[in-house]
Amino acid sequence: MTRRSRKIKTGIVITILAVLLLAAMFFSLFLGSVFISPDELWESEILWQIRLPRVILAALVGLMLSISGVILQGILRNPLADPYILGISAGGAVGAAISIAIGSHFLVLWVGSVPVTAFIFALLAVFIVYELSKAAGKTSSETLILAGVALSAFCAAILALIIIMTGSLQSIYFWLLGSLSSANWNNIFTVLPAAAIGGGVAYFYSKELNALLLGEEMATTLGVDVENTRLILIGVASLMTAAAVSVSGLIGFVGLIIPHWIRLIVGPNHRVLVPVTALSGMLFMVLADTFARTILSPMEIPIGIIMALVGAPFFLYLLRRRRLSGE
Amino acid sequence: MMRILVALILCFFLFVPQSIADHPKRIVSGMPSITEILYALGLEDKIVGVTTNCNFPPQTGSKEKIGGFFLNLEKVVSLDPDMVVMLEGAQPREVRRFRDFGLPVYTMDPKTVGQVMEEIIKLGEMTGKRKRALEVVDAMRKKLELVECNVALAEPGDELVRVEEESADGKTVEITQYHVLKVKQPQALVIIGMNPLVVVGGETLIDDMLHYTGAQNIAYKTNAAYPQYSFENLMEEDPDFIIIPDGLLRKEEIRKDRRWQSLSAVKNNRVLFVDADKLSRPGPRVAEVIEEIAGFIYQ
C-alpha cells in the first residue's frame, strides 16, 4: 500500500468514527429512564443537567482509558497492558478513597483534592508494577500481569478496608464496579484538562512510541531520549487513569480491547493508532453507558460489570492466542 | 388457717424466685436499634454485649463489643448470654448461625411504627419490664398523636375556588363558587444512597414513618424495599421535600451540582438532613424523627 492510499484510508476511518461518535452521542440523549418527547427535550433540565453531561463524561472516560492503554502497551512493549489489569486504576481508586475519607479539601490549580491524590497513588502503582516486572531486564508478560494482579488485589483490599472503617458499604459498589452515575458538569471540567493533555501528549509522542516498539537501543539510535519519554508517557497515562477513576470508579478492559481491535484494523503506527483509538474508545464507552443506564431502567447496571463481561473473555482469548503463537 | 398461710408462703418462695430466674440476666444485643430499646427499658445492668455500631445512649461505649456488621460468634459465646436479641430481616445469616450453635436467640422484625411499639412491649414482657415498656410506648404514642394533630391542623380542609364564566351572550359574567377538598399531600423522597441513587421504597419502616407526617413517599410504588432510582426520575417526579441522612453527602455538593440545583426541593430550601441513626433504627427514637420531619414540612 502506498503512503498516499494509507493516508486516505486513515482519513476515511477517522471520518467514519467521528460521525458515528457524534451520532451515538446525539441519539443517546433521547434515551433514559424518563421518556421525554423530542419537542420538549431541548428545554428539559434532564437533558442539560443529566444526559448531556453524562454522555460527554462517558466519552472523556472512554478516551482517557483507551489512550492510557495504548501508551502502556507501547512503552511496556506488551499488548496485554491496560490500566485496570496493571493495578493502576485500583491504585488511583485507593488515593481517591483516602482523600474522601480524610475529607481534606485542597485545590491544585482548579482541580480538587480527590483527583490529585488519585493521580499520586496511580503513579505510585505504575512504578511499583513497572519496577517489579522489569527485574528480568525486559518486561515479560507473565511478570507484568502477575505484578498487576497482586497490586490490584492489594489495592482492592485497602479500598474495602477504608470504606468499611469510614463510609457506607454502598460506596464499595461505586468504586469497585465503576459507574458514570455521578456525572455532572463539574466532573467534566475536572477531567477535561487530563483528557486534553493526555490525548495531546500521546499524539505528539507517537513517533517516540513507534521507536520504542523497536526496543530501547533502537529507539536511542533513532534519537529518542528513552528515559525522559518513558517518564512523561507513564506520567500522562497515570494522569488520565486517575482522572477517569476519580469520576467513575474502576472500569476495566477498555484500555485493552479498544487498542487491540484498532491495531488489527489500522496497524501499529501510533500516529494513526492514537487518534483512531481515542475516537473508538469514546464511541464504545458512550454506547456501553447508554446500554448500562437504559436496559434495566430505572435500575442502572454499573458499567464496570458490562466491561468485565465483554473484556475478561477477550483478555483470555488474547492470552491463549499468545501462548499458541509461542511468545 | 396456719397451714394455708404456710402453704402460701411456701408457694411464694417457690414461684417468685423462679419467675425472677425466668427473666434473662445476661442479654446480648445484635443491633444498635435493639440496644436502644434495651436501654429504654432500663435493662442497662443486664446488657453484657453490644455491637461496635451501638452508640446510643452514650453509655453503651463501656459495654463489651461483639463485632460490627459481622458478629463474632466466639465473643458472643464467651459472654455466656441467656438472651441474644437480633433483627430477623436485617441479619438473617447471623441469626441462623447463632441459632444453629444453640444460642438463645430472640428476634424481632418490625416493619411499621406500630410494630416497633408492639415489639418494645413484647421485649419488655420477656425481660420483666412490662411497666417500663408501656411507659416508653405511651411516650412515643403521645408524640405521634401530637404530630398527627398538627398535621391535621396544617392541612386546610377545603378551599374556595371561584370560577368565572362568560354567559352565552358574552355580556354578563357568571361567578360560581366551589368548595374543593384540598387533597394534595406533600410529596417527599428519602434518599439513602448516592452513586447510584438509592431511595426508600414502599412497605418499609421509613415509608410508614412518612405516613405519620402526612407526606407521601413518591417512591412507594417501586417493587423493591430500597430501590435504585435514576436522577432523571428524581427530576421528573420533583418531590416537594427531600430527606437525606447526615453524612451521605455534603451541603456544598448539592450547592455545586447543577443537577441538584434544578430540583424544586433544593431551590425552595426544603432538603432536610436528619440523623442517620435515628432515621434508620427501628427503636424508641422513631417518634422523634417523625416529629422532626413533620416539624420541617409544616414549619
Give keywords:
heterodimer; A: 327 residues; mainly alpha; 14 helices; globular; B: 299 residues; alpha/beta; 6-stranded mixed beta sheet; 5-stranded parallel beta sheet; elongated
User: How many angstroms separate the termini of chain A?
Assistant: 28 Å
Helix content of chain A: over 70%
Q: Spans of chain A with pLDDT under 50 lasting ≥5 residues?
A: none
What does the main sheet of chain B amount to? 6 strands, mixed
Fraction of residues in β-strands of chain B: 15-25%
Structural class by sheet pairing and helices of chain A: mainly alpha
Radius of gyration of chain A: 19 Å
Q: Number of DSSP helices of chain A? A: 14
Oligomer category:
heterodimer
Give the H and E element order of chain B.
HEHEEHEHEHHEEEEHEEHEHHHEHH
Structural class of chain B: alpha/beta
Number of strands of chain A: 0
Helix and strand pattern of chain A: HHHHHHHHHHHHHH
Overall pLDDT of chain A:
87
Mean pLDDT of chain B: 86
Structural commentary:
The complex is a heterodimer of chains A (327) and B (299). By secondary structure, chain A is mainly α. Chain A is built from 14 helices and no strands. Chain A has helices at 3-28, 38-41, 45-75, 88-102, 113-134, 141-166, 170-177, 185-204, 206-213, 216-221, 226-248, 254-266, 270-294, 303-324. In chain A, helix 3 packs parallel to helix 8, helix 4 (88-102) crosses helix 11 (226-248) and helix 8 (185-204) packs antiparallel against helix 11. The mean pLDDT of chain A is 87. By secondary structure, chain B is an alpha/beta fold. In chain B, strands 8, 9, 10, 11, 12 and 13 form a six-stranded mixed sheet that branches. In chain B, strands 3-2-1-4-5 form a five-stranded parallel sheet, sandwiched between helices. In chain B, strand 8 (187-193) and strand 9 form a beta hairpin. Chain B is elongated and about 105 Å long. The model of chain B has no long low-confidence stretch (mean pLDDT 86). Chains A and B meet through helix 3 and helix 7 of A and strand 11 and helix 8 of B.
